[in-house]
């Protein structure tokens, strides 16, 4: 479920010079009270900031991290200030129903958890929407919770139905197209960086699945 952000606790990183972004974001989250949430708007899913925060000793609750795609093509990441680095909870309990958030524009990846070396995402696709075929460096475990679709994994084309589980090693191509509204669980490791998203963004902008 999307965290509640207080007025003023929003940073649009797309409007900050790249060399200043991390400093400004870290400075802002350190100014929050424990439990308060910072919304970061970025041109890509900003989960990588969790690693930078951990490295810098920024007290952020890793289990409370949440992200979603915005209608304008940007992403919002929500970072919760912890009391201290040791206070961050390691347990996350949620459901597809409580996180359900479809986007009219494109598939919506809802990031619900990030560990040290992996990320957990609930992905919602309306019928006809797709995750373009791409070949990132990350390993993927994908499981269908609801709906049907078509998956391209390596040189294989596979139907997707509830209960389908797919494991793809890094470097292998993967893409998903929804036939009906489709909901799936993504677990990726390691946490992807910007280079892993380039092909996805390029194909989405031109409306290409493959």
List the helices and strands and how they pair.
Elements: E1 10-12, H1 18-30, E2 37-42, H2 48-56, E3 66-69, E4 75-80, H3 96-99, E5 108-114, E6 119-125, E7 130-134, E8 139-146, E9 149-153, E10 156-160, E11 165-168, E12 174-178, E13 182-189, H4 198-206
Parallel strand pairs: 1-2
Antiparallel strand pairs: 2-4, 3-4, 5-6, 6-13, 7-12, 8-11, 8-13, 9-10, 9-12
Give a brief outline of the structure.
It is built from four helices and 13 strands.
Strand order within the widest sheet?
5-6-13-8-11
Report the total helices.
Answer: 4
Low-confidence stretches: none
Amino- and carboxy-terminal Cα gap: 32 Å
- The helix content, as a percent range, equals 10-25%
Radius of gyration: 17 Å
Largest sheet: 5 strands, antiparallel
Characterization of the model:
The chain is α+β, with helices and mostly antiparallel strands and 210 residues long. It has two domains: 1-88, 2-Layer Sandwich (Translation Initiation Factor IF3); 92-210, Jelly Rolls (Sandwich). Helices cover 17% and strands 35% of the residues. It has a five-stranded antiparallel β-sheet, with no helix packed on it. The protein is globular, with a radius of gyration of 17 Å.
């Amino acid at each position: 479920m999307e965290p509640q952000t207080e007025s003023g606790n929003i940073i649009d990183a797309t409007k900050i010079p790249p060399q200043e972004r991390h400093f400004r974001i870290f400075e802002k989250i350190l100014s929050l009270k424990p439990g308060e949430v910072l919304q970061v708007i970025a041109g890509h899913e900003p989960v990588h900031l969790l690693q930078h925060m951990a490295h810098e000793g920024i007290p952020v609750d890793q289990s409370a991290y949440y992200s979603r795609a915005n209608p304008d093509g940007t992403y919002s990441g929500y970072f919760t200030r912890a009391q201290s680095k040791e206070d961050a909870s390691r347990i996350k309990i949620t459901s597809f129903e409580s996180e359900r958030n479809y986007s009219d524009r494109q598939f919506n990846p809802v990031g619900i958890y990030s560990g040290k070396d992996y990320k957990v995402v609930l992905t919602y696709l309306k019928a006809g929407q797709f995750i373009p075929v791409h070949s990132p460096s990350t390993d993927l475990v994908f499981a269908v919770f609801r709906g049907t679709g078509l998956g391209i994994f390596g040189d294989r084309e596979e139907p997707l139905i509830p209960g389908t589980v797919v494991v793809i090693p890094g470097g292998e191509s993967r893409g998903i197209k929804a036939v009906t509204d489709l909901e799936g669980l993504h677990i990726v490791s390691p946490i992807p960086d910007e280079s892993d998203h380039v092909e996805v963004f390029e194909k989405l902008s031109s409306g290409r699945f493959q």
